[in-house]
Each structure stands twice: as C-alpha cells, then as structure tokens.
Task: inverse folding
C-alpha cells in the first residue's frame, strides 16, 4: 500500500495542489469486500445446515439479509462521514463478526438448551449501531483528547463496578442487570487506550528527557510518570482482584507498547518485561487460580494420567489436532467436547477443528490485516494523539488475539478472554465495533490529510 | 515516533508468527499423537456415527441399530438377544465387543480395508464406509430347538455339520440380552454389574468357553484309539477286563453303573458304558497313542478359532497308569468344551475326518457384494475310516438298544453316546449330564448333523442326571430341526 500510494502521489504531486494528493477513497472496493464478507458468512451458515441436517437452514435468507443490511448501513455511514477511511477495516469486522455468528450457531446445534446465536446477533446489531453513531457523531478524533480524564474516570468506575456483583466462574467481571450480563471491563479497554494516548501525547517530551538517571536508564520525573503509573497500577490491581487475568495482561501490554512508542525508550520495554516477569512469578506462586492455570498449561494431560479424563485445554488441543490441515468441515467437528466456554473463550478451537490449519491461518491473517491497517493509519497521521490512539487500538486487537489464541493452543497459559468479534460475548462485540469505528475515524483523517510523506 | 511504531508493528508480526508456528505444531506435527490419545473421544464418536452392519442368521438379521441422536449416535439392538448371545456377543459403547461382534468388528463398523473401494481417497476424506454384514452358518431352527430344550437349566449345546464344519447351533443357558449393554448410560452400567454378579454367569459362553469333564462321552475317543491301535480287533470279542477294575499301582477299585461288564466285548461295553473296560483299554493303548488320537479329534489345540477363540479341551499327557485309566473314561484332567464333543461325534459321522468348525459363512458389503467367503477348512484325521465305520455302528446301537434311546428319530439313523461326569471334591458336585450324537436322514448319503449337549443342572435329582435322560431329548430336538430344514443348508 505504501509503495502504491507513494507512486500515485509522486506522480500527482508534480502537477496538482496538495489537496489532490489525498489517497483515493476506494469506497467501491469497500462495498465489494462487504458483499464478499456477507456472502462468505451466509455460505458458512448454509454449510453448517447442510452438514448437520442435509438442508439449508430456514433462517439463511434472514440471516444473510440481516447481516447485509447491517453492513450496508455501516458502509453508508462511512461513505457519508468518513469517505477517506481505510476500505479494509469495515469488511474485516463484518467477516469476523459473521464468521463468529456462524460458529456460535453451529455450536448451538449441539446444545439445544442453550442458544447463544440470537443474543449474539442482537449484540452485533448494537455494536454496528454504536459503530454508526461513532462514525456519524465523532467528526474529529482529536475531540477525544479533551475528554481524556473523563475517559480514565469512566474506565476506573467500569472496572470497579463488578466487584459489587457476585463472581461468575471464578471471575468477578460481570454485571448482571435484568437478565442481561455485561462485562464493563471490555468497554474500559477503549477508554483507557484513549487516556493513555492523550496523556502520553501531552507528556512525551517530559517523559523522554527529564528526570534522574539510574544506571543507563533515564527516569522521568515523578510528577509526569506518577499519574499514569498510578492509573495503570490501579487497573491491573483491580483486574487481579477480579481475577480477570487476560485483561490485566492486555492493559499491561498496551501500557508498555504505548510508552515505548511515545518515548522511544527501549529501557521501558526492559522495565516492562522485568515487571511482567516479577508480577507473573509472584501471582503464579501466590494465587491458586493462576497457579492452576499455569499447571494446566505445563501439563495439559495431567488429568488424563490421573484417570479423570481430558481437561479443557487437552480437549481444545484434541480439537485443533482433529482439524489437521484442512479441517473436518463446518458442522462436522466435535469441539463441543470442550464443554464449558466452547462458544466464548474456546471458539477458536471450533474454527481450528472445522476449518483446519488453513482456515485458522486465514482468521489470524484477517486479524493481522486489521492490526496492520491500524498501525498504518498511525504512521500516516500527523498528530501524536491520533498516532498513539491508532497504535493503541490496533495493539488491543493484536494482544487480545495473541493472549487468547496462544492460550487455547497451549502456547501460553490460558487466560479467559474473548476472541475479538468471533467469541460469544455482547460487551466484547460492542467494544470491538467501537474500536473499528475509531480506527475508521483516524484512518479517514490520516488518508484525508496524506500528502505523500510519512510524518517523522 | 514513526520508527517506534514500526518496531511495535514488528513486535505484532512476531506475535502472529508465534501463533502460526504454534498452530502448525498442534494441528500438523503433534496431531497424530493427540488423535491417538486414549482420552480423545473422537474415534469413538466416529465409530458410532453410522449404523453398524448386521449379523445374519438364516437370511434374517438378528441385530439392528437404533439412532439415539446422542453423541455416540447409534446403539446396537438385538432381536432374540438371549437366543443368539453365544453367537453374536455384545457390542457396547461402554464395554467394548465380544464374540462375533468383536472378531468381525472391522466389517461391521466399516473400517475393514476390504470394504473401502478407493483407499487413498478415503484417507483423504477421513470418512469410513458403511458397515458390512456377517452371514453366519447358524440354523435358526436348530438354535431355537436347543435353546428351548435347555429351557431354564444350566448348560450348553453345540451342533456342527460333519461334512463341512459349519456350526449349526451354539447355545448357552442361562443367557442374557446383549442389548442391555449396548448404550453407555446408567442402565447399561446396572446391567453390566448385575450380569457380572450373577452366580450363574449368564455372559459365559458355555458352548465354547467352558470346559467340562466329558465323562463317558469320551469313551468314543478311547474306543477309536483302541481300534486304531488294534488293541481291539473285533468289537464282539470279549475284552480281558475285570469288574471291578483296580487302577494300576493303586488300591482304588473302579466300578460300573450297570452289570455285565466283566470281560464284556467293546460293543457291550459301549452300550452299557462300562468304566472298567474303557479304563483298562486306555491303559492298554498307552498314553502316547491315547494322546495322539485325542489330538486328532482336536484336544490340546490352543489355536482353534471359529472365528472367536475356543477354550482348549485337554487330555493330560503327563500321567501315570492309574491317571491314564481315569483320563480314558473322561475323568481326571480330561476336559472338553461342548463344541469339542460335537467335533468328536462329527469325526465318527464323517468317516474319521473332522473339519475345523466355523461360524461365518461369508461377509458382505452394504451393497451386497461378497467381501470374504468361508474357504475350505483344514481337515484332521481322527481315526481310520474303518474305525469310524465300526464306531458309527456302536453309536447307533447305543440309541437303538442302549442308554441313548431317547435320542431316536423315526426315519433317521441316529448314533449317540451318553455321559454322566463326576466332578468336584470327591465327586461331590452334582454330575454333568452329557449326550453326543449325530443323525443321518432317511435319504441322506451322509450324516447331516453332529450335536453335543451338556446339562449342569444343580436343581435336578442326582439320580436323574444321566445323559440319556436329560441331555438326549435336547440333542434329538436339535437333530430333528436340522433334518427337517433340509440338512442345515437352508438359509431362509
């Protein structure tokens, strides 16, 4: 994209004013990709029905129409208010969301008493609605910078609220009101990313150059570093209290990445890794819940050897292995054997079993593309806040995918988190649509102001 | 800042690479070991994903499959479960398979390579073919007659066709319904526990997996050895045997149930089942030749499969003369399965030759094509044909004039031998009633069926336990059924 873009602008810059050097809008490309994404999802839906019952499911047309209308409305909002936005972001969101609905519907067939797909469809609709609202109302991302402290206050409130509610499956991260359960921590991700970006953008030079020097590390002054470290410590501390390990890991990673990008100090990464290692060892030793997770990771088949049958992680590995290279085909796997959390934390196992390594790689690449588009918007933007915001949002997606995918495939200890767009979980879907909406907004800005050069 | 953003992006690429490499490790490199993990239920689920092939008796399926819509989808069902349990065994999701369900599992479950037309494509597509069917040699009429004949008594019946070795009936009582064990739910667990706890051991296949002292029915073997060894040249010449007979080297005196055994001829001794005569004959023949003849009939053979394995029938070869005397009248360490004794009768009926028995006529694909058919079976020479001819006459005499009168069939030639086997400490157990026989229909060129019946009836009056009284009528019913159904060849 950079090379093609440079070529176009180099040619255009010679005989046109700067305004004409903007990148092409490519809304038609977006629309075609959206049609493709919706068609792929509908095919997947039909495939599940054919594999399980030999007939196309009766809801196929409705499902396709619903997803199509959502995609079209989102597309119209982008066309209207963010015409220069990156054309890949929205189709990737729709495809992942559509695929997630197919996988959840497919698992619903095995658990007739517990249907999750309809609820997920409602939440997806809410997510797209939020996307449209953000794209329509937020005309300039820099507006968010002003509300940085509102954001952090809201994030801390959202993080602490679940402590008042009873724990669900060992984690105190849920708020249940009138039959609906919400995970406020999910929304806090975006708010915290906004705060980190705004604070670091405002204080980058102070962070980078002031303060005492300890050994080879230049420390910033406590006045500058203090507030942000405090916020970070509070959020991670709260999450540890709530036993939401995945999200605490995510916040930690987000903080380190943004600090590094803002200051360019490799030392921060070293400090970050050191702290992470210390924290991990301490928590792994002291917290029985975390300790158990690490034991499971190191010895996934311990329960089998103890004669208690396969544990959840072992079942997940069996599912991935059963998929092999090309998968069993949608609807023909048995990942439901994983049991609890098949549709949420372990949804990737179903993808791995039924779509195989080929399908799983394709899904990873879709996420990678989403992250890459976020980073690219960050590179193109001129304002530090926008750049940090784009990098932060993209990093949230990247870290989240790594933590959960690495967990269910046995690469790292398992931490409960939702696969963006794919997994069952209303708060998660809505949050991820908000992330895509903000990325659309920053990428629109980035490509609108693009003049053929990448900012220093 | 651009540089640092690029660094962060590079870090993300690293994360992605780690995920892809790890996914390839799990899904491709480690996959075979994960697939083979015993805790992985996928092979089991695939196994029960399709209905199992059927076992056929007389052209009719005696098994079926029920769709439970559960994870392990198809469960085995059995028509006449208790009747055919000694043939089919069970196919349980929880407890595995036994007997034909076990030995023919490849065909029935569809994994047999012979069932798959395009193996390479098949591996790629990960499917399995539809299960094939197993056609048995069982004659349903004979099977029913045997089962009805045994009724509530404990015992077993084995019937074979002497000319081919086809097994026509295999019955064991008390029996059980294998369908009770098909599923993997609580009901199957309860049935399993109840059947295993039951003092009468209903899941024991007495016809092939249980050995009994054959008692006097073993005198057929001893007589064959004596005639083959020319210890007896004339069946009507008196043997030089005292009554009672003192076992060599001991002071134990062997007696008879009937009178007139002293110096009796082989014919008389056979009719009256004289222990003294046959014990002495065995000693006169000697252990080597006795053992060789017993081996010819199938004793001491550990490899017999029909296709499931048959318990070894034994004739002890390391014995002193007293023990040999007892062994020769089917006591001491001599033990036989009912199937083995049916083979003894079949050897006499078959002119001295005995064919290895078999239960599977052929296996067929779901479409009907034959996968494998029973080929010609190995033949053993149990005795000289002349010996067989003389024994045939002796056995006929038993039915016409002797202890086996209740086996006689109007219009057919029937030969038999009764037996009442002592067992237990000091022979304190209730004796087993034996009857071995064969029958030749009026128009038949050769005998059509050989049967062995054993009844171990704990409830009966001790005096009643004689092969002639209890076991012979059952044998007759089976033989009648075979003769009536056209020599056992009928499959409809």
Result:
């Amino acid at each position: 994209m950079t090379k093609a873009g440079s070529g176009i602008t180099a040619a255009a810059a010679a005989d046109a004013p700067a305004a004409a050097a903007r990148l092409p809008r490519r809304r038609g490309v977006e629309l075609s990709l959206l049609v493709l994404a919706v068609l792929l999802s509908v095919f997947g839906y039909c495939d599940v029905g054919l594999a399980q019952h030999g007939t196309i499911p009766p809801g196929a047309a409705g499902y396709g129409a619903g997803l199509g209308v959502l995609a079209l409305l989102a597309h119209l909002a982008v066309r209207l208010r963010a015409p220069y936005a990156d054309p890949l972001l929205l189709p990737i969101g729709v495809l992942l969301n559509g695929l997630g609905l197919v996988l959840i519907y497919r698992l619903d067939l095995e658990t007739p008493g517990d249907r999750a797909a309809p609820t997920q469809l409602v939440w997806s609709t809410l997510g797209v609605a939020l996307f449209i609202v953000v794209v329509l109302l937020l005309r300039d991302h820099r507006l968010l910078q002003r509300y940085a402290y509102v954001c952090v206050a809201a994030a801390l409130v959202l993080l602490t609220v679940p402590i008042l509610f009873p724990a669900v499956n060992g984690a105190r991260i849920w708020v249940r009101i009138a039959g609906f359960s919400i995970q406020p921590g999910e929304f806090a991700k975006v708010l915290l990313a906004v705060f980190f970006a705004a604070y670091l953008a405002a204080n980058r030079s102070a962070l980078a150059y002031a303060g005492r020097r300890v050994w080879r590390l230049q420390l910033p002054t406590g006045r500058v570093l203090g507030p942000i470290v405090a916020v970070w410590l509070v959020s991670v501390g709260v999450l540890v209290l709530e036993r939401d390990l995945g999200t605490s890991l995510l916040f930690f990673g987000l903080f380190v990445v943004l600090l590094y990008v803002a200051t360019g100090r490799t030392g921060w990464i070293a400090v970050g890794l050191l702290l992470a290692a210390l924290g991990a060892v301490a928590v792994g030793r002291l917290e029985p819940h975390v300790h158990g997770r690490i034991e499971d990771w190191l010895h996934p088949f311990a329960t089998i050897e103890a004669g208690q049958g396969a544990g959840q992680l072992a079942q997940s590995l069996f599912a991935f292995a059963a998929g092999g290279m090309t998968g069993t085909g949608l609807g023909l796997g048995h990942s439901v054997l994983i049991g609890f959390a098949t549709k949420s934390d372990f949804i990737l196992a179903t993808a791995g079993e039924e779509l195989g390594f080929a399908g799983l790689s394709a899904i990873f690449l879709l996420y990678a593309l989403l992250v890459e588009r976020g980073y690219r918007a960050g590179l193109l933007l001129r304002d530090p806040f926008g750049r940090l915001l784009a990098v932060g949002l993209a990093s949230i997606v990247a870290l989240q995918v790594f933590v959960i995918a690495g967990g269910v495939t046995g690469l790292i200890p398992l931490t409960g988190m939702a696969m963006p767009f794919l997994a069952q979980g209303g708060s998660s879907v809505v949050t991820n649509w908000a992330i895509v909406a903000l990325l659309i907004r920053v990428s629109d800005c980035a490509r609108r102001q693009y003049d053929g050069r990448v900012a220093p | 800042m651009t540089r640092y953003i690029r660094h962060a992006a590079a870090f993300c690429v690293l994360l992605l690479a780690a995920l892809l490499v790890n996914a390839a490790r799990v899904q491709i490199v480690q996959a075979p070991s994960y697939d083979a993990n015993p805790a992985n239920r996928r092979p089991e689920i695939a196994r029960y994903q399709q209905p199992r092939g059927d076992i056929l008796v007389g052209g009719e399926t005696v098994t079926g499959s029920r769709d439970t819509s559960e994870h392990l989808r198809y469960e085995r069902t059995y028509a006449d479960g208790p009747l055919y349990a000694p043939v089919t065994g069970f196919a349980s999701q929880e407890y595995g398979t036994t007997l034909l369900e076990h030995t023919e599992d490849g065909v029935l479950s569809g994994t047999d390579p012979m069932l798959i037309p395009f193996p390479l494509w098949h591996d790629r597509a990960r499917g399995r073919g539809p299960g094939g069917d197993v056609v048995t040699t069982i004659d349903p009429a004979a099977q029913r007659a045997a089962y009805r004949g045994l009724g509530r008594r404990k015992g077993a019946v084995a019937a074979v066709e002497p000319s081919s070795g086809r097994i026509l009936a295999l019955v064991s009582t008390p029996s059980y319904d294998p369908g009770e064990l098909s599923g993997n739910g609580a009901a199957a667990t309860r049935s399993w526990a109840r059947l295993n706890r039951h003092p009468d051991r209903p899941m024991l296949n007495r016809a092939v997996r249980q050995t009994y002292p054959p008692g006097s029915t073993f005198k057929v073997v001893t007589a064959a050895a004596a005639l083959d060894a020319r210890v007896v040249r004339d069946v009507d010449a008196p043997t030089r045997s005292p009554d009672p007979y003192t076992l060599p080297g001991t002071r134990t005196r062997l007696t008879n149930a009937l009178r007139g055994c002293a110096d009796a001829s082989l014919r008389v001794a056979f009719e009256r089942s004289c222990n003294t005569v046959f014990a002495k004959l065995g000693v006169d023949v000697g252990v080597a030749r006795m053992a060789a003849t017993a081996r010819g009939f199938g004793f001491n053979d550990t490899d017999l499969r029909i296709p499931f394995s048959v318990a070894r029938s034994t004739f002890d070869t390391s014995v002193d003369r007293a023990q040999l005397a007892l062994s020769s009248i089917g006591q001491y360490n001599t033990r036989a399965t009912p199937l083995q004794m049916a083979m003894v009768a079949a050897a006499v009926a078959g002119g001295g030759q005995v064919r290895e028995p078999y239960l599977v006529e052929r296996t067929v694909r779901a479409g009907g094509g034959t996968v494998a058919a029973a080929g010609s079976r190995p033949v053993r020479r149990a005795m000289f044909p002349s010996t067989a001819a003389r024994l045939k006459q002796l056995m006929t005499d038993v039915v016409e004039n002797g202890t086996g009168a209740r086996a006689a069939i109007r219009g057919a030639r029937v030969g038999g031998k009764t037996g009442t086997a002592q067992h237990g400490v000091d022979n304190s157990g209730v004796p087993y009633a034996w009857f071995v026989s064969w029958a030749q229909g009026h128009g038949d060129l050769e005998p059509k069926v050989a049967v062995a019946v054993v009844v171990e009836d704990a409830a009966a009056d001790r005096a009643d336990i004689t092969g002639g009284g209890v076991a012979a009528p059952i044998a007759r019913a089976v033989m009648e059924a075979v003769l009536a159904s056209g020599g056992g060849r009928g499959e409809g």
About this structure: Residues 1-20 of chain A have pLDDT under 50 and may be disordered. Residues 347-380 of chain A form the longest helix (34 residues).
